[in-house]
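Exercise 3.2. Students should predict the tertiary structure of the chain below and write it as structure tokens, then compare their answer with the key that follows.

Predict this chain's 3D structure.
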Amino acid sequence: MGASLCGNRAQSEGWPFGPSLYTRIVAGVQTDEIERWLKREFEDPAEEAISKATADLRLTSLDWHRLIQFVAAQDVRTPRSLEEHLQRGRETMPGVLQHSLEETVRRLEHARETGEAITPVKVANSEYIPLRNDAAGAG
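Answer key:
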């Protein structure tokens, strides 16, 4: 099967187990926020459509939309899907980071040459990215 997520192939062929596949550590604390998001955005809205479908009732286009999203959300919860996502990240992230680094250097050099002030941009959910910007304190 190749490299596993947890490195212990004896444990269900290497797949981790626990309350959910997407439980992770953020800022030193275990969180299942991704699982709660999947439930809130895809499972809960699909409940009525699933009830209608299992009762053989007519489904609206909104019901079908919610069922399709529900099925897609279940697919991304599989270990195989997670492994595929991680592999795509391993393949694409070096290029993304290199481009980001080069663009940041270009912008910093431009700001230095023109005297333009650089202001930090608040990015949604940035608290989940364990990075610090110490450039202001660097001398």
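Discussion points: Residues 12-111 form one domain. The longest strand covers residues 24-26.
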